Amino acid sequence: MQAKKRYLILLSAGACLVLLFYLGGVQLPAASRSRHDRSRNGHRPEQPWPHFSDPLHLFLPWDQTDTEDYNLHISPRQKRDINTSVYKGKRCRMDSCFDFSLCRKNGFKVYVYPQQKGEKISESYQNILSTIEGSRFYTSDPGQACLFVLSLDTLDRDQLSPQYVHNLKTKVQNLPLWNDGRNHLIFNLYSGTWPDYTEDLGFDIGQAMLAKASISTENFRPNFDVSIPLFSKEHPRTGGERGYLKYNSIPPFRKYMLVFKGKRYLTGIGSDTRNALYHVHNAEDVVLLTTCKHGKDWQKHKDARCDKDNAEYDKYDYKEMLHNSTFCLVPRGRRLGSFRFLEALQAACVPVMLSNGWELPFSEIIDWNTAAVIGDERLLLQIPTTVRSIHQDKILSLRQQTQFLWEAYFSSVEKIVLTTLEIIQDRVLEHASRSSLMWNSHPGGLFIQRTNKTSFVCSLFQIIVLWNCDKPLPAKHRWPATSVPVIVIEGENKVMSSRFLPYEIIVTDAVLSLDEDTVLSTTEVDFAFTVWQSFPERIVGYPARSHFWDSNKERWGYTSKWTNDYSMVLTGAAIYHRYYHFLYTNYLPTSLKSMVDQLANCEDILMNFLVSAVTKLPPIKVTQKKQYKETMMGQSSRASRWADPDHFAQRQTCMNKFASWFGAMPLVHSQMRLDPVLFKDQVSILRKKYRDIERL
């Protein structure tokens, strides 16, 4: 009898278990899936909170799951159609969807399709195209191109937007060079529309690469797509303001610990995190403000907290909060990206990211662990404790890196676009690609030379004469005898810019640049080189010039007067790093170099602009012998040139043309001159190392 009861109990338990499995009440644990590395350099931001192997599913509060906004009634077929249109080329990588052969003959050149008559184009997209057309990558010949960019505006693919371009699918397919998108790059800031905001662009991108804002890690194709930041139409095309970190104060704490001010979405995608911010807000050092007052029908969805939130929202000034907070919360909006991201970077307010699944901008090259805190939307309540636990030394380091990244890659549309192109070029020229250290350290990847020979100079190594004269070379017996090799290069084009070509025969780091009429003693050269060894990133030399703003003419002015400050050291008698030859030749646009060559003037000013743009520092003037100015003016070969008013007017024009291209005035004034120790001190001349300088 007992055995029969046990048998019946066991049979009933087994039947119940089978029934539970059948109805889905019990689920077997899924095998964990391995995660791919999303960056060539292995930089994936590490989560300071628990990391889950399964992809995050959107959390919907129980009382909102049946609302009108969430009940989208999308059929499985519609979902499949959306996924097909977005992810048809999801498996694309450089080795499968990019034709490297187009880049072998002419290098990395970018072709922009001619703008079609009658096609509207937004200001932001025009800025992108203008940047490409003004860059060193641009070619007007599609036969030379390695990469193709559409002139059709693809930035805003929200069907409710006035910037939305209709019939784009047909227009793209009719392009003669489309080739299913192969070797094409598509820029996009906004995709999808209310209510689901998918990443659908509304046309088949084929095998094209995406440079896209708010792209998810699920849809991002590593080492193929490029994640770019979301930027507003007011974002400057060139130049851009510098970061707001003026002083490295210790301790690095500000008035607020954590701030946010922005919209609160009452329903729909992106509403959960912002709706929960009030739980963390304390109105003291954690100030997280939201407002319901946006959109046409906000009152229709108004909840019990709206009036209170709106009133408190209006009490605070956003810029004051931004510039006086240590950390800035960057929660997702309707899409994964947010304008708050770039605003926080510029303000030296360390971004605290709350956007699960967002592939951060330029993640392939930037180590965001050094400039941001990567949070988890599911663990919002832990954020105040987490940021308070960060040591002040780490905070200072994070803040400094925000400023570097802002100025190097994000402060203008030009820098965003050029960084995108440089990333793709590194993939194409992988053997010469830049390392993670180069991208994440000053001066940044845009100014870094790909091949770098290093040979430290401690004395004169060789003399290189660039012969740009129309007269024939002197006979060998007329050249002076020297203890080092003399190499003569005959300029093929005989233009001014040829003096800054990256000649392979220059194997030392230091380059002493001299005009043909410059007279310097060996003591002066030796002292200038000693100074340069302490400041190898700057131009160190003798003849100084300055710039000023002419308020009457509303333009930049150039002066050669001896005043109490300077902003340029002319390359007619200066030492600088040979790396700047590479930048001058490969970074500056052809338009500026052509201007210099046509005028046969201003090459020294352009080099000063370039170096100051890279270093954000002034050049260094060293002790100048008394006769230097008179010597320069007294040489017959240049007397007429320096006295020529047209020559001076040309240099004024150059200043303004260069400032326009750089987007701002990069030159920095200085009142410092370096003299030898004991210079003119009342001690015996025999005790002085550079005694000859005082005797000149």
Automatic annotation (TrEMBL):
GO terms for molecular function: glucuronosyl-N-acetylglucosaminyl-proteoglycan 4-alpha-N-acetylglucosaminyltransferase activity; metal ion binding; N-acetylglucosaminyl-proteoglycan 4-beta-glucuronosyltransferase activity. It holds the Pfam family Exostosin_GT47. GO terms for biological process: heparan sulfate proteoglycan biosynthetic process; ossification. Gene3D superfamilies: Spore Coat Polysaccharide Biosynthesis Protein SpsA, Chain A. Keywords: Disulfide bond, Endoplasmic reticulum, Glycoprotein, Glycosyltransferase, Manganese, Membrane, Metal-binding, Signal-anchor, Transferase, Transmembrane, Transmembrane helix. It is found in: Endoplasmic reticulum membrane. It comes from the Eukaryota. This is Exostosin glycosyltransferase 1. PANTHER family: ACETYLGLUCOSAMINYLTRANSFERASE, EXOSTOSIN GLYCOSYLTRANSFERASE 1. It is a single-pass type II membrane protein. Glycosyltransferase required for the biosynthesis of heparan-sulfate. Belongs to the glycosyltransferase 47 family. The keyword Manganese applies. It comes from Maylandia zebra (zebra mbuna).
